[in-house]
Amino acid sequence: DLKQLAKETFDRIVNGLASADEPPIPGAPGPEPVSLDEPTEPREPLPPKRDQSAPATRTATGVETGAPVSARAQKETYLTTSSGVRLRDTDHSLKAGERGPTLLQDHHLREKITHFDHERIPERVVHARGAGAHGVFVGYGTADPVCRAAFLREGAETPTFVRFSTVLGSRGSADTVRDTRGFATKFYTDDGNFDLVGNNIPVFFIQDGIKFPDVIHAGKPHPDREIPQAQSAHDTFWDFVSLHTEAQHHTMWNMSDRGIPRSYRMMEGFGVHTFRVENAAGETSLVKFHWKPQLGVHSVTWEEAQLISGVDPDFHRRDLYDAIEAGAYPAWELGLQVFPDNPEQMFEGIDLLDPTKMVPEELAPVQPVGLMVLTANPTNFFAEVEQIAFHVGHLVPGIDATDDPLVQARLFSYVDTQLTRLGGPNFNQLPVNRPHTEVNDMLRDGFHQHAVHAGVAPYRPNSLDGGCPFHAGADVDGSFEHLAVRVAEGTKVRAQPASYDDHFSQARLFWLSMSGVEQEHIVRAYTFELGKCYEQVIKERQLQCLANIDPVLCEEVATGLGLPVPAPTIALVDPEPSPALSQVGEAWPPDGRTVGIVVDPDGDLSDVEDVRTAVLAAGMVPLVIAPHGGTVGEGITVQRTFATARSVEFDVLLVAGCPVPAPDALPLRDAKAGAADATELDPRVVLLIEECFRHAKVIGAWDDGGAALDAAGCSGGLGIVRGDDGAAVLAQVQEEMALHRVWDRFGGDPVSS
Ligand code: HDD
To answer: What ipTM is given for this predicted complex?
Structure first.
């Protein structure tokens, strides 16, 4: 029972000491002074945590040992050197006398420091900042008519590892910056690893991989000052995308709410390229891969994104970790858009080999073919999330790449970058990268070789190793062969087809498919980003691009920048909008949302525990917010204090009391002088309520909570639920939060064209 498991895990992880019989009294002296001495007894064994995703009984090269091969280190009681010798002291260097110089012969000192000196590896040149989790994929069997890949068959269960990421920022950068998000999945299938290395945006900035260094150099911090970090709001980015106009479609997605997701759990994923698949009868089709999140597609507001970057730069990483730890396992359906494999590789006038174009779902519906659920956090971030190495060339029988010039360059780039990043050619032997199937290659030696290859003939043909390894013929299950399709004939050229010349029509399609409030956000995003540029000519050139997308969008942004509105240089056509592109309007279950509950320890707390339990039972995460930590009332554990809570952490706010200012809300001298006004609401609670209101969140209040809303000046309006009974308020709040935000709260006249 997942819900029960979730509750138990939540109680253990989040509530920590909540089960103590006597709740501690805040500020009271403790019973016994706490010892500062180092523990001397062997500690308890490590808490149970899953092993890294290494095959249970196989070595790195897939040799069956019959015994568990554990990748888990740090197991025993006593400290050892790396060669397993037990150590009596790791706290003092070996010296010539207590006050004398350190001796060169101190091997342990040198080993310890040397290893530390080499702990860092180069971060990924792009997608350096990320988070990952283990999961399982189950096929529905619905892909059979088009794709024979075994992991898609009905009921086939395949372990997976997913790494989400931002693109531009360094490894320590903030999570909620405006950027594309990576969505890379490794399927450890019975036919070897399949990597789907996608993004949360279905199109890309460039049509040809040879431009990848250009777009990344433009987006990365300026080479002279190395600022700004993890931002596109700067001159070099807008310089490039306004000149290289095929980037305009992807840029439009970045400026939309897709660029600032609420959670990795609430993002779509896209394989971007068109792939070629084959069914059991040998017939081929062209497909695009989609991940559809079960929690819906949601975003934060730009103001929230900026606040979070300071308040909790690890917001998305923490969100993913906490959800999985609490048993609220995030899930995505894998879907396929299927197109006939015609020689032109076009569909409804859209060039399927042009990665700056997508195919609206209304023209080619996404057909679900399986479900992925993320069920376990990494055991060790470095070993798994940092060392995982994806590759678009990791394909399994039934799936092949196409001639899209972007994927062609990617097929080269990934191994190449990993050779440097992971220090040699044997990174596929790392536990997280190992296939869960047998490996029988003829690759040998190299840095960090972990396998002890037993044969003497790593060549073919041979007789000394009995002729092994043999080719797997077409009759052998699970053998891979590139699909034998005819390649286009022509002369060698550095050129692209005329069908790649349209750079604006799908950006316009996207704009026209947005709701009013989404268009408003796009206008504000362009205005913000261009407002951060220094060069006038860049702003003017980007306005020209916007004029070629939509006159209203262009005019609104130009007004914000205080610049003239250029006329379009192309004829604008009105495509049929694609409602599937909009995030707004669909109702979603409340699962996985975070609910803040403000309580007043001196007020009526009778409903709070029941509401907390009901929130948890509904699959959401309740966080009690009080003036101080510890517990309030009869053992209700406080997860956030007024000092640590900020509105951006919550999808919904419930206010169960009207807490007066706590001493730490005021300057110390005033508090000492007893200046707190008992009738005043704590200013940090005012800020919580105001921000939740401004960010269009549902707010519920009962008992004295109503007075708190009044004191914060957010007494009523759409999405404000007030009542006398906590359970009834929560029930209505749940209904109202189905749309995620209450955009109608602000009425007004949203931008529309
Ligand atoms: Fe890439 C990493 C996604 C185009 C070269 N890419 C990387 C990651 C993702 C993507 C999600 C992070 C993987 C991880 O978590 O380890 N990349 C994409 C998508 C693209 C794309 C969806 C276009 C459709 N990439 C692309 C091109 C090139 C690269 C055109 C080069 C020609 N990408 C790389 C890389 C990275 C990488 C430099 C950096 C770290 C790594 O590979 O392992 O090779």
So the answer is: 0.99
